[in-house]
Specification:
The chain contains four helices and three strands, in the order αβααββα. It is an alpha+beta fold. It has one domain: Winged helix-like DNA-binding domain superfamily/Winged helix DNA-binding domain (Arc Repressor Mutant, subunit A, Orthogonal Bundle). Strands 1-3-2 form a three-stranded antiparallel β-sheet.
Length: 87
């Protein structure tokens, strides 16, 4: 049984150092492509919510092909918090 999408997004950040929403989308696509809420905009919203709740941090920006790309990361303490709630 797969985790809820928001949980999987957070868990993804516990195993990677610096990621963008698009990277998460591409990595989870095969497993979640049939999920109703599996859209890049929903992943961005989930990341922004997690940032506002102190679970992750913004970790830089890039302009790629005239598109702003925001990167996110989690500190060891944030990863520990996420892992304590999501197994």
């Amino acid at each position: 049984m797969r985790r809820p999408l928001n949980y999987e997004i957070l868990k993804y950040l516990t195993n990677h150092d610096k990621v963008s929403a698009e990277e998460i989308y591409n990595s989870l696509h095969e497993e979640y492509k049939d999920h109703k809420a599996f859209k890049l905009s929903i992943i961005v919203e989930s990341l922004m919510t997690a940032k506002e709740n102190g679970l992750i941090n913004e970790d830089g920006y890039d302009l790629i092909k005239d598109k702003l790309v925001v990167y996110y990361s989690a500190t060891p303490e944030q990863k520990e918090t996420i892992n304590s709630y999501i197994k």
